[in-house]
Design a protein that fits this description.
The chain has two helices and six strands; from the N terminus they run αβββαβββ. A hairpin with a 4-residue loop joins strand 5 and strand 6. The longest helix has 13 residues. The protein starts with a helix and ends with a strand.
Length: 129
């Protein structure tokens, strides 16, 4: 899924999430395809970066591939921000998503974020900025 598309999907998903007070797309500024979400009284700003599937071209969309949603652990809003966001995404049971890799659980990783692996070979990198 392309970064703009996925950013807009996340904004919509977060707006429908009970723990989230506000979610919006951020236009302009230093980070393209960014969004802000206020959850549990604190604001988080995320940037979405995309990677095309092998052999894919920017001028056409890669068709979505569906399967079973990924198993993702739900984390309370006060937990690690990337683990919480992965739980929100996984809770929506996205059939186009193969798995979600949470960066904060990696040994030595200091920057929160996650990698969303889509079944069609594309990836979205969502990093806390």
């Amino acid at each position: 899924m392309r970064p703009l598309e996925y950013r807009d999907y996340l904004v919509d998903l977060l707006q429908r999430t009970p723990d989230v007070q506000q979610a919006k797309a951020l236009e302009g500024g230093p980070y393209p395809y960014a969004l802000a979400a206020t959850a549990g009284g604190r604001e988080q700003r995320w940037q979405v970066i995309g990677q095309l599937a092998d052999g894919a071209k920017h001028d056409r969309q890669t068709p979505a591939v569906e399967g079973r949603p990924p198993a993702v652990e739900t984390v309370p809003v006060g937990g690690a921000p990337d683990a919480w966001l992965a739980g929100v995404i996984g809770g929506a049971e996205p059939v186009d998503t193969e798995r979600i890799d949470v960066w904060s659980v990696r040994e030595g990783q200091k920057s929160p974020g996650l990698t969303v692996f889509f079944r069609n070979g594309e990836r979205a990198f969502v990093r806390l900025v």
